[in-house]
Amino acid sequence: MRLPLLALLARGPAHGYELKQDLEQLLGAAYPQPNIGQIYVTLARLEKSGLIEGEEIEQSNRPNKKIYHLTDAGREALHAWYEETADEPRVRDEFFMKLALAPQTGLADQIALINKQRRQYLNTMRSLSKLAAAENRDNRIAQLLIEGAMLHLQADLDWLERCQEELEELE
Distance (Å, rounded) from C-alpha 138 to C-alpha 154? Predict the structure, then answer.
């Protein structure tokens, strides 16, 4: 949550609720909606680390609000983030660990595990399809997020099929 908040603040000062709304509007319903408490805790940490600065703004008939803006250090951190590539190979996959250990424990059948995981992926794909249909078509970012998730799920389904074929050959 740190770096996405910094990115939103790069375009100008904002308060926590604005940042929450901006994330929700940008990413749509497919992305887990941020908790406002999480946002304010993250903003406090960013401020403490010198990446943002907050300023209390008085409001009549309402509690004061704190507006945050990016510091030079925050802008540098954001530039560094954009320069990094995402390297997240899925070699630490929890499902695969279950699949690999099942024969050793005798507590689960590998094919049953694959079938259960397949059903989960298919249910998630159905949910994403409904979400894509309901999502604002003009929100291309949200549509791309949903499409990417569905492509990953399809790859996971293909991989499950491959695992099942390999395990059935061993029997």
Answer: 25
Beta pairing class for 52-57 and 65-70: antiparallel
Write down the pLDDT at residue 94.
83
Tokens 């909606």 map to which residue? 33
Q: Tell me the pLDDT of the chain averaged across its residues.
A: 89
Please enumerate in sequence order all residues whose Cβ is within 8 A of that of 72, keeping only pairs 6 or more positions apart, or say none.
none
**How far is the C-alpha of 7 from the C-alpha of 32, rounded, in Å?**
18
Encoded tokens for 65: 């609000």
CB–CB of 15/68 below 8 Å? yes
Q: What share of the chain is helix, strand, coil (3-state, %, to 5)?
A: 65, 10, 25
* Residues 58-70 pLDDT 10s: 888 888 889 999 9
Q: Which residues contact 51 (CB under 8 A, 6 or more apart)?
A: 2, 6, 70, 71, 73, 74, 77
Contact at 8 Å (CB) between 95 and 41? no
Name the pLDDT band for 89 (thresholds 50, 70, 90).
Answer: low
Residue 57's SS3 state is strand
**Which is nearest to 78 in space by CA: 13, 141, 8?**
8
Which of 74, 14, 2 is closest to 39 using CA atoms? Answer: 2
Q: What is the pTM of this model?
A: 0.71
What's the token pair of residue 114?
């694959």
